[in-house]
């Protein structure tokens, strides 16, 4: 099943008056790393925190 909802509709669901900011590490190496970044972003304008744990690498 594909999600064909337009990005604009998805973003409008947030009801934001400013740009959506998604922040976080490209690849989460440890729980401590993700929590540290979350604490640093807590007081920023970041809307979404994301971290990949199974990101395929292009280089070793």
TrEMBL record:
SUPFAM superfamilies reported for this sequence: Aldolase
Keywords, sorted A to Z: Transferase
Gene3D superfamilies: Aldolase class I (3.20.20.70)
Pfam families: DAHP_synth_1
GO MF annotation terms: transferase activity
DAHP synthetase I/KDSA domain sequence ranges: 15-59
InterPro entries associated with the record: Aldolase_TIM, Class-I_DAHP_synthase, DAHP1/KDSA
Protein name: 3-deoxy-7-phosphoheptulonate synthase
């Amino acid at each position: 099943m594909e999600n064909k909802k337009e990005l604009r509709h998805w973003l409008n669901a947030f009801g934001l008056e400013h740009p959506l900011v998604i922040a976080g590490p490209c690849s989460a190496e440890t729980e401590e790393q993700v929590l540290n970044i979350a604490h640093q972003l807590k007081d920023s304008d970041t809307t979404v925190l994301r971290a990949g744990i199974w990101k395929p690498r292009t280089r070793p």
